[in-house]
Amino acid sequence: MKTPKNKHIDLTAAQKLIKNRKRPIDPQMLSAEILAGNTIALSRAITLIESTTSAHQKTAQEILAACLPHTKKAFRVGITGVPGVGKSTFIEALGMLAIEQGKKVAVLAVDPSSTISQGSILGDKTRMERLTADANAFIRPSPAGDALGGVARKTREAISLCEAAGFDLIFIETVGVGQSEIAVHQMTDFFLLLKLAGAGDELQGIKRGIIEMADAIVINKADGINTIAAKHAKTEFSRALHLYRPKASAWQPKIMLCSALKETGIDEIWQTLLEFEAHTKANGFFESNRQDQNKYWLQATVVNALKDRFYKDETVKQQLPKLLDAINTGKVSAFQAAQELLKNFK
Amino acid sequence: MKTPKNKHIDLTAAQKLIKNRKRPIDPQMLSAEILAGNTIALSRAITLIESTTSAHQKTAQEILAACLPHTKKAFRVGITGVPGVGKSTFIEALGMLAIEQGKKVAVLAVDPSSTISQGSILGDKTRMERLTADANAFIRPSPAGDALGGVARKTREAISLCEAAGFDLIFIETVGVGQSEIAVHQMTDFFLLLKLAGAGDELQGIKRGIIEMADAIVINKADGINTIAAKHAKTEFSRALHLYRPKASAWQPKIMLCSALKETGIDEIWQTLLEFEAHTKANGFFESNRQDQNKYWLQATVVNALKDRFYKDETVKQQLPKLLDAINTGKVSAFQAAQELLKNFK
User: Fold this and answer.
1) Domain total for chain B?
2) Cβ partners under 8 Å of residue B332, min gap 6
3) Residue A54's domain is classified under what CATH number?
4) Which of A217, A236, A244 to mutate to test the interface with B (most CBs of B within 10 A)?
5) Edge-to-edge strand order for the sheet containing B105-109?
6) Is the CB of B245 less than 8 angstroms away from the CB of A207?
7) A207 in contact with chain B, both atoms CB, cutoff 8 A
8) Are B168 and B142 contained in the same domain?
9) The domain boundary residue, chosen from B23, B40, B68
10) Does this complex have an ipTM over 0.85?
11) Which chain A residues are within 8 Å of B333, Cβ to Cβ?
12) What is the pLDDT of residues A48-84, one digit of tens each?
């Protein structure tokens, strides 16, 4: 056994650590620990899910298979907002309130850019000091990965494990890079857009498609001198939402004000979440939406794999640039080019 | 040769018709006629494109191949609006103005539901009497077909043929069934949403995602007692658009009022189209967007074909319902189910 050379390290502790690290993982035992609510086991299992080693992946899938049948469905809340909007403070305030109401709260994140930017959201747990210290909370930063598909799969599986461990309220946070809001929307029951109050121009930052996904738009930092601007923003958003058709959930999206820092408006948001859950469970949308989401991820995984096989095909790789050029110079139509590619694929 | 039995029919004319019908189509000759601007030849070629007979399809592709290299790029304008909003009257007013300005105008439609509803849009050419009678206009109803993919392909090819025939302004109309607006948006340079003025509640009918696609929202029937409501609607839409990020085209979408029937506001809309065309041609968006669209249709065609092969596979067909059930009852994850399906596919 190799021992650390640095003499400042406690040799006994280090050897114990190394021994534990080498001990093979027993998926059945780890699953049992997760189902018993052990968050250290939960953490280890999520690490396996996030691992790129195929042995770890195999173990992770075994754990997942053992946990899935015993998984109780949590209420999953997606939260998006640009950096600086106060997501961590907001989640801490809302999460602590939920814990007071008897909930067990997990916080996960989808941030496909975290490996590039080196600034993983939730990476700094000190931003959620109270939640981090609470036995009824579990916080996990975004898994590393540059492809959204991979990050989404890992997060979906982490959700299942959190549910297996008894967490009944799960927040999934995203800063909205690329298509990550769509991914989070497709894995949550409730989608919340966090915004800042501010001058008219600051409102012009909403990504296309986000307003329509939102079940609630919460304007944060609505305190002190910001209060008037926040109320104005609320009116603007109410008008904008008013233009859209009713949602499939038959839920009328809410616009709310809060100050996560001063903890004002948080209770109203919590009530709204409960109201939405009751509303969609009563009208059947909660369950049908979950089934649609399952179908969505099944189909998305299939399509991604098929596209992957196709675009990695040598003939396709060789022909594609030439054909794109031929389309753009008007030599063939996009459909003819596609047929040409498909003809030579298997 | 069979001759008609009905004695009221002119025998000579009937025989000539039958003879012509049986005459094989020469793709080279038809292409030359199209390129010379012959709308009868154009019409025949589009009929071939729409045909499901494989011999016709083959000829159609030959004609297309012969025409594509000589195709001048028209300005393509997508127009969407619910039935009753006055699309035909609007297109007639705008089209006649464009013809006065020296343009040649083609009107096509994407309506995947037309075979089901039996009520093809543009089917009744009498709604556009003046355009129908004008030598510089060409009107063609939506091709039949229940799958949007097929209708989209046919329409894209019809657009190319119209461009080959010298039409330099092409309207593509849709009532917005299913995903048809997205298809039309992906085959046009400018996307126009036609709305009706009315009480606040009437505004609540906009499909999600449409506002963000619009380069202009035109409120029609803004005349007489509707004027006040129309102005109010204009303010509401301006506020809503204000919430979004600037578009990739760097074009600020316009909200305009018009009365297609009284022909007020039409000139302003025409000026807006010209302004947009100049703006996007100057900043390079016009060309880059066309290239993105070509890529989009190539990829969409590939994905559709791959999905088609996959979901028509016997093993997949057999496994899919069982696996969906297994996901919904929590036995496997969506990703595991997808892997299972993919494993057994080729």
Assistant:
1) 3
2) A65, A68, B323, B326, B340
3) 1.20.5
4) A244
5) B137-139, B105-109, B169-174, B75-80, B190-196, B216-220, B254-257
6) yes
7) yes
8) yes
9) B68
10) no
11) 64, 68, 156-157, 160
12) 998 888 899 999 999 999 998 888 789 999 999 887 8
